[in-house]
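Check out one such.
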Amino acid sequence: MAGYVSIATGVTAIKLGAINSLPKPADADQILAAFVVNSGDPAIPLSA
């Protein structure tokens, strides 16, 4: 998670294995949902 993201850093993060991106500002529900998705619940979408 980063406080500042540009397109270049986003692309680099994906290339390095990031599987998720949250819009800014992200609320607590979005952050918690990202962790659930990472643990394998395909019913929860990666983006809203």
The CA atoms of residues 22 and 31 lie 8 Å apart. The mean pLDDT is 74. Residues 1-48 form one domain. DSSP finds two helices and no strands in the chain.
